[in-house]
Specification:
Elements: E1 9-18, H1 25-43, E2 47-55, H2 59-68, H3 72-89, E3 96-99, H4 103-118, E4 122-132, E5 137-139, E6 159-168, H5 174-183, E7 188-189, H6 191-202, E8 208-209, E9 211-212, E10 220-221, E11 224-229, H7 231-236, H8 238-241, H9 252-255, E12 264-268, H10 272-285, E13 294-297, E14 300-302, E15 305-306, H11 317-324, H12 326-336, E16 343-345, H13 347-376, H14 394-400, H15 402-411, H16 415-436, H17 438-443, H18 447-468, H19 473-482, H20 492-498, H21 501-504
Parallel strand pairs: 1-2, 1-12, 2-3, 7-13, 12-13, 14-16
Antiparallel strand pairs: 4-5, 4-6, 6-8, 9-11, 10-11, 14-15
Helix pairs in contact: 2-3, 5-6, 11-12, 12-16, 13-16, 13-18, 14-16, 15-16, 16-18, 18-19
This protein binds 5'-O-[(L-methionyl)-sulphamoyl]adenosine.
GO biological process, one term: methionyl-tRNA aminoacylation
Motif ('HIGH' region): 17-27
Catalytic activity: tRNA(Met) + L-methionine + ATP = L-methionyl-tRNA(Met) + AMP + diphosphate
Length: 534
């Protein structure tokens, strides 16, 4: 893509998901959030790189493949494809899908390892400890629960390891990391997570092991091929490999030349330590600037309970999106849960939120306004401009700086705040129609007033659809098209041709006498099925 003068580069990542199992709702959650940010940044006409992918090495994957009678690579290919299927269904527009079994990735990992090695940050020592294969992480004995089980995977017993490993000198980076957190207070977000990390670091950092013996499914340690590189050391570098253009030679220099530093890594709170402590230290050791931000979101529960296979209450994201559609699923999770906090899925609540905000408030507003425009204004936008509307008009007042507030919310990853700002304008527009009763005004021959009502409401609908498009792109496209614009929010080139962000982010730009489309319901009321609850 050609980069225009005013364009900025914005690169962001989801975690690279393990391929031991098909995607769960937690992976879908982070990816929907990442896609919403990427879409917002593209709307602002930035050059954006959204990276997602899969983390394919390590013992967990090797064992799963063995249990299923597959080769590890066949297991990876199968599950990586199922992630891609889900991303298509959820309308995720990623730019790169990074797989850690890709050949180019191996070259990047080996070069990086060599840099860290040359910096004298890797040494051989004996490692003894409890290892959780599901986390792919050593645990302190005091962390284990129920006599030896992982605190996160409470049905998985930690395994004792006593082997020679290569270690990374994390302890050497204690003060540099502290300086990084101090100098960049926004590096770890939200602030509650920042505190967790600061506490952890203050207790004193210990070197961690970055190789395994007796494990083939991984990248060999260049100077000692009996060892394979620890899956986390390998996986974090998947973010770097993803930055290579398709024809690039796989070198660190090429990978880091355009998009680095990554602007934000979106992750769940359980993998914060890897991203906010180990990763920047590894980068410092290799002479690479750390990323700009790590955002650790909360955990999802279902009907108030922790989700888990063994608990038999997982929520299948494919079933969810097939039942309700991508926009509904995206809207629920981003609107209903404050990003950063834990949140819950409940199907009744899901149906209620969607019906209330998108079917009743937004969909109905568009429908009733278009019907009035047809009846009272020849199915065209009234012959008015934004500047004809008085400054103290109630919708203009909200609409005029709505984009500033919503932009701030998106930039802070406060999706629920962005949604509630937008829905506030929608609800106020419904109320305004009821107050004005244009059907009576029309009967009284007050055509000018009728036109003002219709113009200001249509313009508020347009702006709301525009600002909500990163979350509900298909719904926003339908709304825009019914208002007479030839725009598809799922096709960035189409909206850049038709709209400039500087224009369409403003209230009052709806052109006069624009032919309107046919009023068709854009969001049908959802029904809670009587059987097969999710
Ligand atoms: N492979 C590592 C990441 C490596 S990144 C270089 C990994 N993968 S994972 O598939 O196990 O987890 C992916 C993400 O799902 C994590 O961000 C994790 O926080 C998130 N979630 C797992 N369960 C979750 C919920 N119940 N709710 C929300 N997110 C959850 O970790």
């Amino acid at each position: 893509m050609e980069v225009k003068e005013h364009q900025k580069n914005f690169a962001l990542t989801t975690p690279l998901y393990y391929v031991n199992d098909v995607p769960h709702i937690g992976s879908a959650y982070t990816t929907m959030a990442a896609d919403a940010i990427a879409r917002f940044k593209r709307l602002e006409e930035n050059a954006v790189l959204l990276i997602t992918g899969t983390d394919e090495h390590g013992q967990k994957i090797q064992r799963t493949a063995e249990e299923k009678g597959l080769s590890p690579q066949a297991q990876c290919d199968k599950i990586a494809a199922s992630f891609d299927t889900l991303w298509q269904k959820l309308n995720i527009q990623y730019d790169r899908f990074s797989r850690t079994t890709a050949e180019r990735h191996e070259a990047i990992v080996k070069e990086f390892f060599q840099r860290v090695w040359d910096n004298n940050d890797i040494y051989l020592a004996q490692k003894q400890g409890w290892y959780c294969v599901s986390c792919e992480e050593f645990k302190e004995e005091r962390e284990l629960v129920n006599g030896g089980y992982c605190p996160i995977h409470t049905n998985k017993k930690a395994e004792w390891r006593d082997e020679e490993n290569y270690f990374f000198r994390l302890s050497k980076y204690q003060s540099q990391l502290e300086a990084l957190y101090e100098k960049n207070p926004d590096f770890i977000q939200p602030s509650s997570r920042r505190k967790e990390v600061l506490n952890f670091v203050q207790q004193g950092l210990q070197d961690f092991s970055i190789s395994r013996v007796n494990l083939d499914w991984g990248i060999e340690v260049p100077p000692d091929p009996k060892h394979t590189i620890y899956v986390w050391f390998d996986a974090l570098l998947g973010y770097v490999t993803a930055l290579l253009d398709p024809d690039d030679e796989p070198t660190l220099e090429n990978a880091l030349s355009r998009w680095w530093p990554i602007n934000v890594h979106l992750i769940g709170k359980d993998i914060l330590r890897f991203h906010a402590v180990y990763w920047p230290a590894m980068l410092m050791s290799a002479g690479v600037t750390p990323p700009e931000k790590v955002f650790g979101h909360g955990f999802l529960t279902k009907d108030g309970h922790k989700m888990g296979k063994s608990l038999g209450n997982t929520l299948d994201p494919i079933a969810l999106v097939e039942r309700y559609g991508a926009d509904a699923v995206r809207y629920y999770f981003l609107r209903e849960i404050e990003f950063g906090q834990d949140g819950d899925f409940n199907e009744t609540r899901f149906v209620n939120v969607l019906n209330s905000d998108l079917a009743n408030d937004f969909g109905n507003l568009l429908n009733r306004t278009l019907k009035m425009a047809k009846k009272y204004c020849n199915n065209e936008t009234p012959n008015l401009k934004g500047e004809d509307i008085a400054e103290d008009h109630p919708l203009k007042q909200i609409g005029e700086n709505l984009s500033d507030r919503v932009t701030l919310a998106y930039n802070n990853l406060s999706f629920s705040q962005a949604c509630s700002e937008i829905i506030h304008l929608v609800s106020r527009s419904n109320k305004y129609i009821d107050e004005q009763a244009p059907w009576s005004l029309y009967k009284q021959g007050e055509q000018k007033q009728v036109e003002e009502v219709i113009y200001t409401v249509l313009e508020s609908i347009r702006l709301s659809a525009y600002l909500l498009s990163p979350i509900t792109p298909t719904l926003s496209t339908q709304i825009y098209q019914q208002i007479g614009f030839n725009v598809d929010f799922n096709n960035p080139t189409s909206f850049h041709q038709e709209l400039s962000f500087q224009t369409h982010r403003c209230w009052g730009i709806l052109p006069p006498l624009q032919l309107l489309g046919k009023a068709k319901p854009v969001f049908l009321r959802l029904e809670l099925p009587e059987e097969n609850p999710l």
